[in-house]
Amino acid sequence: MHPHGGTMLRVRRLNDNPTESKTMTQKIVIAGSGFAGMWAAISAARAVSLAGKENEVEITIVSPSPHLHIRPRLYETVFEEMAPDLAPLFKAIGVRHLAGTVEAIHAGSHQVEVLGADGQRTTLPYDRFVLAAGSRLFMPNVPGLKEHAFNVDQLSSAMALDAHLKALAHKPETAARNTVVVAGGGFTGIETATEMPQRLRAIFGQDAKIRVVVVEQAPVIGPDLGPVPRPIIEEALAECGVEVRTSTGATAIDAKGVTLSTGERIDTQTVVWTAGSRANPLAAQIEGEHDRFGRVHADPYLRAKSVKDIFVTGDVALAATDDQGNVASMSCQHAIRLGRFAGHNAAAELVGLPVQPYRQPRYVTCLDLGAWGAIFTEGWDRQVRLKRAEGKATKREINTKWIYPPQADRDAAFALANLDDAVVA
């Protein structure tokens, strides 16, 4: 995805010369400017400010561009506000942004290799490194998946799906044109599927005969959402006109349809793949235990358990949220708070502040269910508190306000990064 060229610029590691270490600036490098990375940068800057050591610690965040992609909203159809610019915020809090991608982590020498957006390679030294590189869509070896399926994992792919659907309106009406199959019946799959009927009617006309099918390998829809909200989810899917196939997977995809594990073939020109996520491959470069999603086992302070001076946060971290055996999910809800703790602790170790153990005991979910509305649940057993219009209003509040970055105001951003802040969205 990136050009492999340019000159390797070797930057001497901090503290190579002990006589210089007393006066040289200490460095925090953060990989990724998603929810976890952005909040790690804010929280680290806040800790440095609290210690009065702004001139002694340099914070650099590395990502392809200084934008926060609002991934939880990519099943929607309005993309204008899906990538807010973080550059003014980073400037306000004194964080440097480097346009590029961290490609290699050298824990032994406290350095990371960066491929810059300009194609140049740079080696950055660090005193503390925060891996906040997020996750990627799980893409197994299904014939035709990469060539013919769409997804809503990244902004570019969500826009490609939207352009494809709109282009179908100019083709002859057939059952295949008017059929969408969503492969994966988890959180994203359900939101995508329930949104799709009204989305297709807006494109093809309100009287169009459309068909939406969601396919899930587990014996139930929304397997990770638990049994409590499931009857409501099933009700919403039925009311939206979405067909459900459980205990079924996609075994082959081509330009004209999808073949299921049951042997059934569905003629369609649109397959949307939503079958789970895996931690960014960079996580595999960190020694120690990883879970089945590729996440690094973190200690209570979000340090990588097996590597000194590296913190993991967001979708690359396997972290306990409480003492009841629950762990953070790969969601922005957990990434925001994980980022705050990782950033604070990485900086705190350098500036002499107390580190604080990550805790996020309150857990909520808000699942969009298209024209039916939405459900809002509380607790790991997901007790339903709001549904239909009330749930939809809460979902809209979360999607358009709660998860967006703070304004480019230093004091306001630092106030929101307070680890005692009760906001969990």
Automatic annotation (TrEMBL):
Its cofactor is FAD. InterPro entries: FAD/NAD-bd_sf, FAD/NAD-binding_dom, NADH-Q_oxidoreductase. One of its GO terms (molecular function) is NAD(P)H dehydrogenase (quinone) activity. Residues 27-337 form the FAD/NAD(P)-binding domain. Signal peptide: none annotated. One of its GO terms (biological process) is aerobic electron transport chain. Keywords: FAD, Flavoprotein, Oxidoreductase. Residues 1-21 are annotated as: Disordered. It comes from the Bacteria. Belongs to the NADH dehydrogenase family. This is FAD-dependent pyridine nucleotide-disulfide oxidoreductase. It comes from Stigmatella aurantiaca (strain DW4/3-1). The lineage of its organism: Bacteria, Pseudomonadati, Myxococcota, Myxococcia, Myxococcales.
